[in-house]
Amino acid sequence: MSIVLEARKVSKNFGGFYAVKNVDLKVEKGSVHALIGPNGAGKTTLFGLLTRFHAASSGNIFLDSENITGEGPADVALRGLCRSFQISSIFPGLTLRDNVRVALQHRHGLSHQFWLPSRTLSRFDDEADQLLDRVGLAPLADRLCSEVSYGRKRALEIATTLAMQPKVLLLDEPIAGMAAGDIPMIVELIRSVAKDCTVVMVEHNLSVVERLCDRVTVLVRGEVMAEGTYREIRDNAAVRQAYIGAGFEV
Question: Which of 96, 16, 111, 4 is nearest to 50 (CA)?
């Protein structure tokens, strides 16, 4: 399979402290790839480096074999490398449809034109409703975001990210803080999304990683400790030792 996203010897140094150090990562097109590791391992920092929210201290990042190391986050998002965040980034005072419509405005180059007539923006409604239907939220299109559950807010974030037509979708702890009853919905949503684009996810819930992911990369203290299938990672003695006290279970 071809490599769609690659990091080569990528490091991030914060005043002498390496949050990420000499990381090599290859993500195959069409796969679901997990980044796991104890708290403070550098997973979210690596996400920031891949999507250019952080500038790398050294190393290079490639999307479809093109070097994107010097580009900004908006530029790489328009190229198709898009991410979600641990903290909800939706607009609670807008409806679900309007949140998706804002993302569609950005894709069509209208992100800074907030005062356009509603009839102009209504041309995005059908596509917004299609995206909401894709994530199971179509019946709630006219509800305010503040009125829906946390799990549905996370589903909405995925819909807004899909509005950018990603080649690679990076999900930062998509299950974190979620009620147990909402987890199966998000798992199936990620599985569905992965049919059309590559997914890279940071996730602490290892049962979710086992169910979803083709490959797993383990970060410890900013460096890659191991990579392989979930079974290979689960049976790796060094990984098990690193996870003692951090909840690694077979």
Answer: 4
